[in-house]
Structure prediction request, 442 residues.
Amino acid sequence: MAGFWGTRKKEREQLAAQDAEFGRKADAALVTADERLRISTDELTFAEIELGRDATRELRDALESVRTHLGEAFQLNQLNHDEIPDTPEEARTRNARIIQLCDWAEDLLDDRLQALAEPVARARRAPEIIEGILAQVARDDARIPKIESALTRLSNRYSPEALRKISGNTREAAQLLEFARHSAEISTARREGGQREHANLALETAIEAGRRATTLLDAVDTFEVEALRAESTLAAIIEDSRDDLAAARDLRNVPAVAAAMTALEQELDSLTPADAKPDPFAELTRLRAANGALDAIVIKTRERAARPVPSESQVRHTIDDADHQLGVARSVISGHRGWIGADARTRLAEAERLRLDLSTLGGSIDEDDREKALADARRCGQLASEALQLAQRDIDSSRPNDGGWGGGPGYGGGGRRGGGGDLANGILGGLVIGSILDGIFD
Prediction:
């Protein structure tokens, strides 16, 4: 008995120690969260100096919300240390709530401060960034004559349709570069005048305008390389297409193959002559599509020749056979509802579902659908046959061994059970059921 009470005392002491440790964690979390609130308030002040009040609205709202919820946490902590005794459960609940509020407050402040970290760093480096923007603008200005020369060279080789996406790049880039330079100057002036928010807006505008201008100029350099690559690929696809046309001649009697071959031949005939300016990108796209269509139909036709497609009459015959087996199984199962087990009903339901899917084929069954339709019809018939066999097993197992069915005492003269009426009913019932099943399986 002493051992029992000693164990209970030890458990109480361990639980009290855990509660005390949980309380210390709640106190530490509250101190940490309060310190984080103070530091974040200072960060807000610095961020407002660098970015302005509008850019720091989310952090300011987060601080207000954190102050409200930490007030609740401090009130709960005060209840832990007042003179009114609490139950251990009440103390645990309060400490868990304190830790939850403190964790939430720290996560929220971390998120808002992280969102402002990059804008603040950029604002503090504004003079350095503006100097970099102006240097990049000067470099891009120097590139414009070379880019214009490249455009002239490209216009002598490729059609206006091919150059449509880049023909105005130098003009648009020059406008963007001037806009970036002007925005950088405004940013510097506003920052010197103490208007940090306007200065940061102008700085962001200058960064974006310079980036877009550089992208437009790079697109012209990239175009020349991509056009050469497209021409090389186009030559390879032309050769491949001619080989494919030669290989598909033995299938020209197939209408789908003949149509694909005609479409590919038309694309080959429509290629730009040697003395004209081509659009290699458009020609490559059209020829690749026609070549791919011919490859797909040829592969499909050869596979079909290797594995003949079932005739529609064969599929219809198999569906009719499945309908017959399904009708027989449905008739037997519906006529003996109380005798049929779950296995037979499940097989019948699966067969019914397959037959419902087959009914969506419509009047004419497409060649692409015949193999699946044939397999589904066979599976439907097989499931119906299994359902019928399982139903017969259930019916046989449900027959009584005494009077009313053949072989029991009610049929024989030596039996004392089953008088004239029961015997007649048993014989009649046995003959009826036997005739139904014999007709089914014949």
